[in-house]
UniProtKB/TrEMBL annotation:
Signal sequence interval, chain numbering: 1-22
Name recorded for this polypeptide: Nicotinic acid mononucleotide adenyltransferase
Keyword set, alphabetical order: Signal
Length: 306
């Protein structure tokens, strides 16, 4: 009997303590921070990075950045499109292999085949814009990211029309429309556009079609101007100054990377020219360093009425 009572008493105490016990679970907040995007991931977000030369700033320059229209970063290989001719096709759209690169934190090291080593501090300005700053030369470049299949190549040609015109030794006339009045320009078969904004940056020849471009006799030299057409980015005004013979005015269109069109409003005639003597640029010594539109305007002798 005593044994039974003792057992019941112990059971009651056990039940009492069990019913009063509450398990407390403390959940600690995780201090794990999601991994931040790396510079290499940022660089590989887009196929092409357009070098917006109009927004570059600084007292110096980096030669390989100053000549490039686009740059690309592909598994350690640094590519550049230094020419407008062939852009979109050359190197599957990435351009030519011009060096190698490495990233660490947000520092970009580029070793260029010609110009050697350059280090950049990289700042992400927006989802598709980065800024590259080089301390040694005190210069920054704004790069705008694009995919190859959505990049507006037409706008690229018109935005950089001076450089496109200079990528061929000369342009040969291959078509004259039946429409239009007879005029002096009907006799011109070759035109050439040279770097520099002063006298003599435009040449014209009446040599026969098919002539050796190395033996062309240039009948006229003068100055050329290219101006924007209000309301469209896919057309330019072209003014050719023929020394003391007066100016000729045209509407300039880019048909493809080998063909341009001149429309002569005063006569109603359309001409087409084919580029001859393609000049491929890999290093700055071979081509003209790109300048902003403001810098180009400062060097040009203004002759146009636009």
């Amino acid at each position: 009997m005593k044994t039974t009572k003792l057992f019941l008493a112990l059971s009651f105490i056990a039940i009492l303590f069990t019913s009063c016990y509450t398990e407390t679970v403390i959940v600690e907040e995780s201090n794990i921070t999601p991994p931040a995007i790396t510079l290499n991931q940022v660089l590989n977000t887009y196929d092409l990075w357009y070098v917006d030369i109009n927004r570059s700033q600084g007292s110096g320059y980096i030669p390989f950045m100053q000549i490039a229209f686009t740059v690309s970063f592909n598994n350690g290989t640094f590519h550049a499109n230094n020419n407008l001719v062939g852009i979109g096709d050359q190197g599957y759209g990435y351009g030519i292999d011009v060096g190698v690169y490495n990233t660490g934190n947000f520092v970009l090291d580029v070793t260029h085949d010609i110009d050697g080593f350059s280090r950049f501090e990289v700042t992400q300005r927006s989802a598709n814009e980065i800024e590259l700053y080089n301390y040694a030369n005190d210069v920054s470049y704004i790069l705008v990211g694009y995919q190859r299949n959505t990049f507006d190549y037409n706008a690229l040609f018109y935005d950089n029309i001076h450089y496109f015109l200079q990528e061929y030794t000369t342009w040969e006339k291959v078509f004259t429309s039946q429409e239009g009045a007879i005029n002096e320009f009907d006799n011109e078969n070759f035109v050439a556009f040279l770097p520099g904004g002063g006298d003599g940056n435009f040449r014209s020849s009446q040599d026969q079609n098919g002539s050796n471009i190395n033996n062309i006799y240039w009948d006229y030299t003068g100055i050329y101007n290219v101006d924007d057409v209000p309301g469209t980015q896919y057309l330019k005004y072209l003014t050719l100054d023929y020394d003391f013979l007066g100016n000729e005015y045209f509407e300039l269109s880019v048909i493809d990377d080998n063909t341009i069109s001149f429309y002569h409003p005063s006569s109603g005639t359309t001409y087409e020219f084919l580029g001859r003597g393609y000049i491929q640029y890999k290093k700055p010594g071979e081509g003209k360093l790109r300048k902003s539109n403001k810098e180009i305007a400062k060097t040009m002798t203004k002759i146009s009425k636009f």
